[in-house]
User: Fold glutaryl-CoA dehydrogenase (ETF) from Haloactinospora alba.
Amino acid sequence: MTDQRKASPPDPDDFLAVDGSLSGEERDIRDTVRGFGSRELLPHVAQWFDAGTIPEPRALAKSLGELGVFGMHLHGYGCAGASAVAYGLACRELEAVDSGLRSFVSVQGSLAMTAIHKFGSEEQKETWLPRMAAGDVIGCFGLTEPDSGSDPGSMRTSARRDGDGWVLNGTKMWITNGSIADVAIVWAGTEDGIRGFLVPTDTPGFTANTVHRKLSLRASITSELVLEDVRLPEEALLPGASGLGAPLSCLNEARYGIVWGAAGAARACYRAALDYATTREQFGGPIAGFQLTQRKLADMLVDVNQAGLTALQIGRLKDQGACHHNHVSFGKFSCVAAAQRVARLARSVHGANGITLEYPVMRHMANLETVATYEGTEEIHALSLGQAVTGVSAFR
Assistant:
């Protein structure tokens, strides 16, 4: 029998040694992205959140392109072809800084670039993907509409044939990167069903309006897209995308990044609470010595490590080609809820200080309200899991 007394005490930052099972290459990617986040992003993100924008998004895109995280899970066309776990680790480290920054990368790589990579022609791939991977071109993904969120099949944006081209009309809402994008992937209803289109944002009739006064995901640029008689050539059509399953498959890639990202936000809040509890003194000692505080830290510790294990297992399944979309729903549903619990507890450990931007917990707490809503609401994923285990759909 193994003598348990020889085991090393658990690491407070990786209690169940989740990262202990990573390969050398995966650890290198983790450390590279974590280092970039600590040096280049964390010193500024509270100011960006306070201002409600990213002041120099193109400079940020170029830096992220040089880091290699745009479309890093894709193969060819300037993309790294990294494993699913490696991409997940990058998302975790970015969201440990801020959800808005991970969203910047997810929308570019998992939505816009993935749509082109999966469904585009060879010419479209060669034209757009290398420049997007480098951060020289920014993309966005137009699926959600003002009256069509959880039910994208009811979209009103339309595309009709006109001679040898197309004319698009409609409105898209809650589009990350919309007003800074060079190209938009727009989904529209046609007489043959839902199709995807590559829309250069300088096309006449295309307008992007930035959404202001957000209380969440403020270090991110969110937009409304308006298409008024936008004329496109036949070559703008994504030839391999037909039906609602095409955009939903891209969303599943973005949701996978959220699974890891939520684990990163949870870890950041837990670490901030642990640091604060061990240094903040009240009643003659650190508040970490109080039973109620230790219970909060224990609850956070469990949620952080369970979220990390969930993300890693789904990543391993994905790398094995065995990840069903319901696995990703499980991850988004469970990891985001865990991160929300951790953020709330971490805020309470900080007391009044927790509501300021001097500490990260309230910023993460607010961001996670958006994370729980986009790429499928908590309720939608609960119903997806219910259908998976019962075989009965509750959607209609």
Observations:
- The chain has three domains: 18-133, 139-242, 246-390.
- The radius of gyration is 22 Å.
- The CA atoms of residues 179 and 245 lie 26 Å apart.
- The first helix runs from residue 24 to 51.
